Amino acid sequence: MVNHMRHNRSRVGMTRSHHALKVQGISVCPDCKAKKINHKVCTNCGKYNGRIVVDVMKKTIKKEKKLKANSEAK
């Protein structure tokens, strides 16, 4: 016969209480005042710690070209 309860409900619950996800910290970008995740590049302006890390305009132009090419192909 197999043991049905190896751990009681309290012990299982106490273990599972540590499995919850933590809330990510959200802050405001000092340059464009958009909401951003802490320690990440701002998705709106592409800056991190006052320096431009990602060229946002270049990315948007590339996306527009890709969308235009896809719409012409159809």
Automatic annotation (TrEMBL):
InterPro entries: Ribosomal_bL32, Ribosomal_bL32_bact, Ribosomal_zn-bd. Signal peptide: none annotated. GO terms for biological process: translation. GO terms for cellular component: large ribosomal subunit. Keywords: Ribonucleoprotein, Ribosomal protein. SUPFAM superfamilies: Zn-binding ribosomal proteins (SSF57829). It comes from the Bacteria. One of its GO terms (molecular function) is structural constituent of ribosome. Belongs to the bacterial ribosomal protein bL32 family. This is Large ribosomal subunit protein bL32. It comes from Candidatus Taylorbacteria bacterium RIFOXYD2_FULL_36_9. The lineage of its organism: Bacteria, Candidatus Tayloriibacteriota. The gene is rpmF.
